[in-house]
Amino acid sequence: MKAEKVNLGEVMPNLNIYRQFTSAQVQRFKGSMQDCHYWIMT
Predict the structure, then answer these.
(1) Contact yes or no for 1/40 (Cβ under 8 A)
(2) How far apart are CA 4 and CA 9, in angstroms?
């Protein structure tokens, strides 16, 4: 089994909800996502 840790902030797509946020809010959100990770196990 292989396991790979992926940073959510690096693979986060541009979301439609961003249109409702200010640019500062979008930057804070993206910065927060840099602290989130998930594992891909194959």
Answers:
(1) no
(2) 15
Tens-digit pLDDT profile for residues 1-42? 999 999 999 998 999 999 999 999 999 999 999 999 999 999
DSSP 22: -
Q: How far apart are CA 42 and CA 13, in angstroms?
A: 23
Domain spans of the chain?
A: 3-41
DSSP 1-42: --EEEEEHHHHPPPPGGGGGS-HHHHHHHHHHHTT-EEEEE-
